[in-house]
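Narrative summary of target 7.
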Amino acid sequence: MATTTSLRLPTLTGEVETYHPRPGADYGSGFSEPRTRVAFAAAHVVPDAMADINPTLEVALDWEATMAYRRYLWSLGLGVAEAMDTAQRGMGLDWETSKELIRRSVEEAKAVDGRLASGAGTDHLVPSPDLTIDEVIAAYEEQCGYVERVGGRIILMASRALAACARGPEDYATVYGRILSQVKEPVIIHWLGDMFDPALAGYWGSDDLNQAMDTAVAIITEHADKVDGVKVSLLDDQREIDMRRRLPKGVRMYTGDDFNYPDLIKGDEQGYSDALLGIFDAIAPVAGAAFAALDEGDLQRYDELFGPTVPLSRHIFKAPTRFYKTGVVFLAWLNGHQDHFRMVNGQESCRSVVHLSELFRLADEARLFTDTERVTARMRAFLEVAGVPQ
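Modeled conformation, tokenized:
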């Protein structure tokens, strides 16, 4: 029988061990927006657990809890990347709900002077090889137009519809060229790898990543005045560095590498990456403190803060990578940012009890728990429901 300060946790070897969580950590709040980097956390959404719906077919969000989490991220100096894959965009969160999410987030951001950028894509269009390029362009125009009308800034998301119907790199050049020629302000382009979304295999018109990068760089270079930066989510640090060195002057590289972010953000003698990361949702207090240390030139503190979070991030984003959101939401629930461990589309079931138990250990080792009693009580309740005697 576990005590109030311990748990019986399943292990990766199939056993159950007694585990004693560390004391809670407090990194503070009220961090200023970083001076030396731009840092966005891609934020998750909180469903309304009391809504009488079929969660695999319908969406109902708890708007207050969802907005409260964005205010929390802003209080730590982080920007918010809205309505992207971390929010289960294209994995349960539909365009109509995304519109409301974007509108509300823009209003919240203005109220607190928070940095915000919102995803615009084509996910209201059913992917098919029979689509035309003009249909894809029209879908992008609809979503980009909406973000601009509500006063938002655009993250130009990768398009499943374009990946399904494009015949080669020239179709990508046509679509992106048309959209970039129309946007009012520079956008962030998101290159999301197929490990995050298998429907995006062959993006930029080639399965060869070198050729794909050539196409992406050419498009960005041609329209550099309309591109704030590019977020690369390929989980390949050297490829990101190679692309970063090829970008036109003034175009940022936003790392989307949840495996290697500390070194990519820190950079080298030839440059650095800014950040737009899903893992920042889960490690927000540490990220806020780490950027504050970086601003002060305290690289030792920066490494001490971010270093222990990397094993956790690699675990959360392990294959199948697209289910990383389950771990992100699990940590938000454990830390008291929401009252339940429920997800849009019922995706709380997409990771095993053993996986989430290991996540608990790694988060504890990274000192990400603020209230040990609450975290222990919630983890114990989760384990008991899962059939692990406490």
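Residues 36-309 form a domain with the TIM Barrel fold (CATH 3.20.20.70).
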